[in-house]
Please model this.
Amino acid sequence: MKRAFPILAAVTALLLAYAFYEAIWVAPMERTMGDVQRIFYYHVPSAWTAFLLFFVNLIASVIYLVRRNAKADAVALVTGEVGVVFCTVVLVTGPIWARPVWGIWWTWDIRLTTTLVLWLIYVSYLVLRRFSESSQTPKLAAVLAIFGALDVPLVYFSIWFFRTQHPQPVIGGGGSIDPRMLHVLLLNWLAFSCFALLVSWARYRLEMFKREVEEAEALESLLVAGSGAQISKTQIPLSREPQ
Model:
């Protein structure tokens, strides 16, 4: 597994570089929006990658609740962290794209609002994991993650069932896209997915190492405390019988 990591890192770097080249110089220019539309190749793949990570977070959270599996809990934590990063990219690139196209940075559109709510739920999830020291924290976090995952389909299908200012979906939702643009879009999603896998893998290894160190320190503390109690017990003088 350790040998596979640098290989994945190299492949991911090449994919990201090639996808950037395709998005900026090869993909055709959109007729109405011009070059600003090229942010589409980062905005949409970031959203899809965030959804994928939140789905993995959901599965890992359910497994933890059922089996109390520490590895599943670590996977849930890691995918929650990386998912929030990609969701943040969505919320940043969206207004940058909207300003020259809509003339405003933000509108309380159903798609934008539900995405913001999704981001806030998972940020709350991370805050809970970071600052709560209760033994029930992983369980509470898993329940919150399941609740947050319910917002993902609402975000995705919001523009299918509601009249919104957000553009209609370009795949399977009545919209259309140039095949060359679709090729670049999927290429960027592949690159982003590999990057998310790479970061999650590294973060998972770090999290498991951290937990092993904490367990070792806790065990050492117990052994030291037990040894100290034993020494104190042996040093107590025996009471003498009255003469």
